[in-house]
Amino acid sequence: MLDKLPEYRFPIDPWRLIEREYRGDDLGTTETLFALGNGYLGMRANPEEGREAHSHGTFLNGFHETWQIHHAEDAYAFAKTGQTVVNVPDAKLMKLYVDDEPFLLATADLDQYERVLDFRSGVLERNVVWRTPAGKRVRISSRRMVSFTHRHLAVMTLEVTLLDSPAPVVISSQLMNRQDGEDEYHVEAASLGEGKDPRQARKFTERVLEPKLTRERDNEIVLGYRCNHSKMTLACGTRHLIDTPCSVNVATSVADDLAKTVYTVRATPGDPIRVTKLVAYHDSKGVPTPELADRCTRTLKRAAGDGIEQLFSEQREWLDEFWERSDIELRGDDRAQQALRWNVFQLGQASARTQEQGIAAKGVTGGGYDGHYFWDTEVYVAPFLAYTSPEAARKVVRFRWKMLDAARERAAELSQRGALYPWRTINGEEASAYYAAGTAQYHINSAIVFALRRYLEASGDLEFLAREGAEVLVETARLWADLGFYSTNGNRTFHIHRVTGPDEYTTVVNDNAYTNVMARFNLRYAARTVRFLAEWNPEQFAALRRATNLRLEELDEWDAAADAMFIPFDDRLGIHPQDSSFLELEPWNWDGVPKEKYPLLLNFHPLVIYRHQVLKQADVVLAMFLRREHFSIEQMRRNFDYYDPITTGDSSLSACVQAIVAAEVGYDDLALEYFEQSLYLDLCDTHGNTADGVHVASLGGVWAGVVHGFAGMVEWGDYLEFSPRLPAKWEGLAFKIHRHGSVLRIDLDRDGCTLEVTDGAGVPIIDGDNRLMVEPGQPYRIPAKP
Amino acid sequence: MLDKLPEYRFPIDPWRLIEREYRGDDLGTTETLFALGNGYLGMRANPEEGREAHSHGTFLNGFHETWQIHHAEDAYAFAKTGQTVVNVPDAKLMKLYVDDEPFLLATADLDQYERVLDFRSGVLERNVVWRTPAGKRVRISSRRMVSFTHRHLAVMTLEVTLLDSPAPVVISSQLMNRQDGEDEYHVEAASLGEGKDPRQARKFTERVLEPKLTRERDNEIVLGYRCNHSKMTLACGTRHLIDTPCSVNVATSVADDLAKTVYTVRATPGDPIRVTKLVAYHDSKGVPTPELADRCTRTLKRAAGDGIEQLFSEQREWLDEFWERSDIELRGDDRAQQALRWNVFQLGQASARTQEQGIAAKGVTGGGYDGHYFWDTEVYVAPFLAYTSPEAARKVVRFRWKMLDAARERAAELSQRGALYPWRTINGEEASAYYAAGTAQYHINSAIVFALRRYLEASGDLEFLAREGAEVLVETARLWADLGFYSTNGNRTFHIHRVTGPDEYTTVVNDNAYTNVMARFNLRYAARTVRFLAEWNPEQFAALRRATNLRLEELDEWDAAADAMFIPFDDRLGIHPQDSSFLELEPWNWDGVPKEKYPLLLNFHPLVIYRHQVLKQADVVLAMFLRREHFSIEQMRRNFDYYDPITTGDSSLSACVQAIVAAEVGYDDLALEYFEQSLYLDLCDTHGNTADGVHVASLGGVWAGVVHGFAGMVEWGDYLEFSPRLPAKWEGLAFKIHRHGSVLRIDLDRDGCTLEVTDGAGVPIIDGDNRLMVEPGQPYRIPAKP
Q1: Pairing mode, if any, of strands B752-759 and B494-495?
Q2: For residues A752 and A745, what is the distance between their CA atoms, to the nearest angstrom?
Q3: Active site includes B356?
Q4: Which residues are CB-neighbours of B543 under 8 A, at least 6 positions away?
Q5: How many helices (H) and strands (E) does chain A have?
Q6: Mutation target vs B (from A435, A489, A611; most B CBs, 10 A cutoff)
Q7: What stretch of H or E contains B318?
Q8: Does B189 touch chain A if contact means CB atoms closer than 8 Å?
Q9: Residue B602 touches chain A, beta carbons under 8 Å
Q10: pLDDT tens digits along B737-760
């Protein structure tokens, strides 16, 4: 695996991802790995020159086009509206010509090349020395930053210095709306055959962005567009500055799809030419583009006023605080330390400034999965946010609260009470066209409640509970109570049928263990929390009842359903079957299916996969991790022993969870192996589709692997338990978590771990049979179990 | 129900369907009910004038366009090529103008109107007296016939007689290729929203038939076309004759999409103007249109030479023989007699001249279900054919044999050995875009074997068995043996998982009872028959082994799988659960779902339907009918009692089978009720979609209802058993069946039935505990059970 990260090309560095050799054969992957983003605005790491690219991507979280889903064979309540994140106009372009010869990485004779993504400065830098066709050496240095502090802003600089002899230098800085077909990636991907890999983004065959505005004044250019069908609007603007002792001529041109600011310079050796480019993007659901253009102007003016050095400095300050909260320090494995920080940095880039939006499966690094929001943000990413930046977790949950009306409508379409969240969506409408692995995954409801609870526990934010959280709890619990039913076969057990669990290699089954475990949690937590609200804040409770027509008996009904919830268990094997008939399935032919036939979903008809005991991810194992309290260690081990060998790991959500539970049940080597699989999943492109964007859920899973796997953190109500089990090849591991407003630092070494409250009041923990408080200033030591 | 057939409008007649009032509000239904066809060429009953229509349909069996199926979310081995029967150029048009005023039924002032479909003459007649806007009375008589004896030929006559005063009369006889959008039906249907009812035919949005040829010579016009994508070719030609004492001028014009032969007549009162129009259609997979045009010329010349009176007379002779073989005589219920004959007549029209093609779900009467062939032809129609016209059954089975290579390829795509027949197809490729209710219906394999066996038993055609049948048996049995597997849970039972039975309201289940029963039959019958072949004709057996790479051990493997086949049975209820988890499903809310929410498939998301014990058709009941020998009467009654109340009958395949089994278990009133539901299913448009074409399978089911339901015929190996149970409101019922080359007439009265061999050698039967022969000339009496 690590041979994909050879040191000569990607040297080890604890705080930076570095590339020392340009290569054209893995452009898609490196565009993703070096991508910049702030959760709202994302830019893939395309070079300033444009041209060679897997995908010239610039994305605004939630900015999407809609389209009618045509079902080859339609049925009632199938998803109707497709939604695809739009690749917005490209402002990264700063083309360079020396002696009228274009600088292009793919063909350039390079004396030096280095590209660096710095996790502390939040800046992508490139330093190149180019020997032009005329033999002149030119130093080209560029910096690019998507601001964490100014949501709509990106900053770029390009510095060109002739080293030998004078030459005319042209820098053409562009803002280009790439329509389909002009983008090499699209052409290439289309040749794969439409929909060949359902995980890639939809290719549009007609114009998506209709030009609505071009504006050029002072030093500023703004282009405005409206999406053809979704009617979302967009403005993007640039502002340029040039700084050089050489003589300069500037010309601008503005057309619907291309704005250029062209500097023609009589460059003299040793005299740097530095162009600064400020870029602003604003979008909306329908605000007219002139208004958005004004917003761009304000963003650009403010940034120009601040000056770019201050902007770079604010960026570093923001990241200092981020790392203070979120860093994972790893001692004894420098490559893994680098990878860990890259993972955490990408989590920051995916979540920092999402504001009113969610976090897409690929963050803002690519168009994969159409830019949709899924359940995995809630289960894999929200805990990281809750434990390190509670405010960011709040946004994730609030985003779902805002979607509640759409989810109520969707439940009604599916003939159910309450709310059913869409399996994949941008605008709140169900966009999953294949219900068996989409709409049938009702468990998304419980994922949202899981994230809500994580946030409430990290923050203690009762106001949020009262105003937003409780409504989500009521409507999700209602869905479960209505979806399931009591079996009339003697024992009144509560069953949930024809659903799909997280494992998509078995679909539309009865009593999926994961779903039932999580539904039970959802029902109980809703009943308990709503009762708490009734007592704590009768006025808010009254408001809740008005908003939801809640009957008091419903709370009892939820508890009763939870108590009667059927969780499949096989006495003979001592395991929890994945669903009520899973153990009846035929074993998969592990020996007979060659390696190149994986992932199975691209090589076998769904019926073939569904017919066998073969998993994409082990959802019983996930259930054990998420609802640890319901499983004994013995049960966990038996389940893990059963499911691990039949899990393909074709899902990127699989390895991190296998790592955590392997660690929990004492399979240390396997735990590390799985952890490393998820740690390097994107960096080594192990799933072959990092080009489509980072796997955000897996990034969160890596964090969880450290915290829950190696530090063994388990939540027991108000108490935390730690079971330190540092992999033998490491020397130490340290991180912090937020807990009810306090901050707890956990520092693992080979013998155990030290807990220390670094901020706030004491934190309650369990150590063996003891419940106690770790008090500020009094580090507490937990020895590793022998 | 029968209020849809009021006597003043549809008078009762034992041999004719008659309409006495024109109405514009059920055009789609009457176009279907009065449609003509010979299994190859079908013409909907549009009036000669064109214009008002639900669908101006003319169809050639198997003549189709292909299109790429776009799956909203694609997956491996999903069906790729859509196929849709093409509405071919319309030759029915013979427009009439008197005093330049067009005759149009919708607006005409009619003194008299009658439309008659005569089951013995095979001619559709219309007789009208029109009072023109000028007050002149005009008698208009037309006849139309699709020839049973000349596959490619249709004949029409139009006779116009002025009754009062002279007037200029224009008859414009046309051949029109209606492109989409010009057809009122398409416009109307499109407004329903694409795919709203998945049972309707696909609407094309681009030109399908590319004009390739126009030819006009002598008295003949031919147009030739090629399908845009399938590249199938078509030629259609007309030849006209006019006969009148009045003075006539004729003009023809030919363009790509419209050929006209226009007669302008100075008509005088009392002098009939009679125009005869001969029409020929020829199509092919790719023969150039000039060659097809020549074939049209030959067809037309021959017909012209014969003269139309001879053509009409041949038609009657063909039908005389048809009725001799196929008639069902019903005494004591004239309306039912008429309906029965209409049903049988439509079966004849669907099957007479299919030649190298199958029988589509709508025959050649409409574009519903895209003109596809399904399993129901084999199960519902092939027995009628086998028992009345064995040669027609042979064609049905041979058509599937010819599809074997495609079915082998499809099995391989689905990772299986053997052959898997497509769920729906025209050209042999799977065209079902929704696999859960399509490809997953593996039971189609057994349906084909079922039809094969019916044919072999009726005909004793061992040559066919040796040359075609055995190969089908080997490859279908192989599929089952490979698809299923032996459970390792102690008892080595054989299971077939993740399949869908005929009931499409429960999909992708384990051990569907119907599927397993039929797979067992398929396996056993294949093993036994191939063994028989090995003994009977070693040479053909050797050829079979070469063609299929058959290993001898496979025969034992098929027997073993059949012996170990798991058939779900619930001891407590004493019933066969529809599948292994059916009884665990939630009961359907029968009281809470209003009537207008049926059929459920148009009003509930599939997941909602699948989650409940609610059936579209009761496939366990069907299994009991098809494999009667495996079920005791007690089991049958229990199963029927369980499934009948939870069966919606949303499928048109349901009522006839419920009727048969209800009769078998002694529910006489219910049997008659269900029988009448299927008898009048199209005539009273009870499913609301007769406009899309007749329900061919249900037609076959009506025949089966008489034979197996009321006569109680059951096959026990070589013996037939009869249990006469004539509904109390009838006086008698008589029909014939073919058996090993003999013909047996069964005549039911209130006390029992009389069996009589009317042709061939004796026929072995079972009567109570006796096995005996009914010998020619010695009628045998079976009394009704008290």
Answers
A1: unpaired
A2: 14
A3: no
A4: none
A5: 21, 32
A6: A611
A7: helix B308-326
A8: no
A9: yes
A10: 999 889 999 999 999 999 999 999
